[in-house]
Design brief:
By secondary structure, this protein is mainly β. It has 1 helix and 5 strands, in the order ββαβββ. Strands 2-1-5-4-3 form a 5-stranded antiparallel sheet, covered by helices on one side. It is globular, with a radius of gyration of 12 Å. The mean pLDDT is 94.
């Protein structure tokens, strides 16, 4: 199983992504999966509404070119007056 932690801001900017470092510093708020699901917008909204949430979408496993189903847990974290979205997901078989 491949998993990693990612960190972003509520505006959709990816701050840390060890699985796909090329995304760091980019705003992903309008990113959709292969089914058109705006999963970044969805997981941010769910985390902000509930404090934490599980979300499902299709994304690329690091090093692969085909999207796979991904299940991700996200939560909001406050640090020194700034809100972050922290997440980690896995690709179920």
């Amino acid at each position: 199983m491949y998993t990693y932690v990612f960190v972003g801001r509520p505006d959709g900017t990816e701050l840390v992504n060890p699985g796909q470092p090329s995304l760091e510093g980019k705003n992903l708020i309008d990113t959709t999966d292969v089914n058109g699901q705006p999963f970044v917008r969805d997981y941010i909204a769910a985390a902000e509404k509930n404090g934490s949430a599980w979300v499902n979408y299709y994304w690329y496993k690091p090093g692969q070119n085909e999207p796979a189903r991904k299940r991700t847990y996200v939560r909001t974290v406050q640090s020194e007056g700034t809100t972050y979205i922290i997440g980690s997901g896995f690709y179920p078989q």
